[in-house]
Write a structure and sequence with these properties.
four-stranded antiparallel sheet, 13 strands, alpha/beta
């Protein structure tokens, strides 16, 4: 068996065996297969797909490539949440402390930026001193003590995915349903949660561009979850425009704090309540309506914000030192009208270009740069009213390129539905 034959087999649209998938992944992890060879196999998978069984096999191989976390020492039902990634998606920063403030245990492993989408770990690292690596004992103890911990994917948990994830980011192989499904579910299953809630983004700014693709991904992940006896629920949410108003690491942390105060953007607030109600309902064995009321009360009383501050302190972060780039350019509207659409993907790419994300695995992120929208789809604005601010060290931002991300029309536009579907 050799990697060339496996690449050619998948290039020719044939089904790989479990043994072939295991050979390719294991030898890539141990260095016997090079980046350029695995890139070829990944591209063949992107172009030709995988069967359901191939995807389940790939998930198993990745889970078995490292250790599995035993969360049995944590008291209560552990419900994990994951997002397929989008522009401005800072949901975990709000959701983890919010649900833990009402008694849900959150033991979460998160990733770094992938493609044009920001990573939760990058956002947390924009908080001065925040420690994203904990030992298993520290991780479990923190969840038992305060209810939540969020750490980066450790080297010994699904190392195959960690290596493949970074390679996909820089080889144009992020948008593949089998690769996304196996990547997400291998981490979730190895991380030891009892149940999994998945936020599947749909639209221009997401990996899944249309509802059909998102539904296929959701159903595939649910099947993988069931094969491991994990209750798995998928929420399909709109990513035709950025989530919230901020794009960029420090800016998104600040917006998350405002949301925990009850002052955040309405779409972010709604998504957090939707996901949080499902998680809380499962963990506490109550109805989703009862769960929602608990979450709203926690925001109103300040308990949710207190939990965020406690969570950051426990992981050595200084919530009072979140730096944003001082220089910014204000982009104005060229005419009156309603915003019909916002190109989330292009805005995500612009944010990445100015340093908020990575073009290469080795790139360093500038945590303070980014974009803050003044208006969203369906909003009215006047000529010369501000569309957005772009925070960047460089004054030579392409104003025309940014302005072209907005379609402005005369007729009134309804606000888009944020929650598209919930699949179980």
């Amino acid at each position: 068996m050799n990697i060339i034959d496996i690449i050619v087999k998948k290039k020719n649209k044939k089904v790989l065996t479990y043994e072939e998938i295991k050979f390719a992944v294991d030898n890539y992890v141990n260095g016997n297969i090079k980046d350029y060879q695995m890139s070829s196999l990944l591209m063949a998978i992107v172009l030709n797909g995988m069967t359901e069984q191939e995807t389940i096999d790939l998930t198993k191989v990745m889970i078995d490539s490292g250790d599995k976390i035993d969360l049995s020492k944590i008291n209560g039902t552990i419900v994990d949440k994951h997002s397929t990634g989008g522009v401005g998606d800072k949901t975990t920063l709000v959701l983890a402390p919010l649900v833990s403030s009402v008694g849900v245990k959150v033991a979460k492993m998160s990733g770094r930026g992938l493609g044009h989408t920001g990573g939760t770990i990058d956002k947390l690292e924009s908080i001065e001193g925040f420690k994203v690596t904990l030992t298993n004992e520290e991780f479990i103890n923190q969840v038992n003590d305060i209810g939540c911990a969020v750490i980066s994917q450790t080297a010994n948990i699904v190392p195959a995915d960690k290596k493949l994830y970074a390679l996909r980011d820089v080889t144009g192989t992020t948008e593949s349903i089998p690769l996304i499904a196996s990547s997400i579910m291998s981490k979730k299953i190895a991380s030891g949660a009892d149940a999994i809630v998945l936020d599947v983004k749909v639209g221009n700014g997401a990996l899944m561009k249309d509802i059909d693709s998102a539904t296929k991904l959701a159903n595939l992940m649910i099947k993988i979850g069931k094969s491991y006896n994990k209750k798995t629920i998928c929420v399909l949410s709109n990513m035709e425009e950025p989530l919230g108003k901020s794009i960029g690491n420090s800016l998104e942390v600040l917006e998350s704090i405002e949301t925990l105060k009850g002052k955040g953007p309405s779409d972010l607030h709604k998504l957090v309540l939707t996901l949080g109600s499902i998680m809380t309902s499962i963990a506490l064995n109550i109805t989703e309506e009862e769960a929602k009321l608990k979450l709203l009360e926690s925001i109103k009383t300040g308990k949710a914000l207190e939990k965020f501050n406690e969570f950051v302190r426990m992981q050595n972060g200084n919530v009072n030192n979140i730096q944003v780039e001082e220089n910014y350019v204000s982009i104005k509207s060229s005419k009156d009208g309603f915003i019909k659409s916002i190109d989330a993907y292009k805005l995500g790419e612009i944010a990445r270009k100015i340093g908020a994300g990575r073009l290469n695995k080795e790139d360093e992120i500038n945590y303070g740069v980014g974009i803050v929208l003044n208006k969203k789809v369906g909003d009215y604005l006047f000529e010369n009213e501000e569309l957005l601010k772009i925070y960047s060290k460089h004054a030579d931002v392409n104003i025309k390129e940014i302005s072209e991300c907005f379609e402005i029309v005369e007729e009134k536009i309804d606000k888009p539905n944020l929650i598209i579907d919930i699949i179980e």
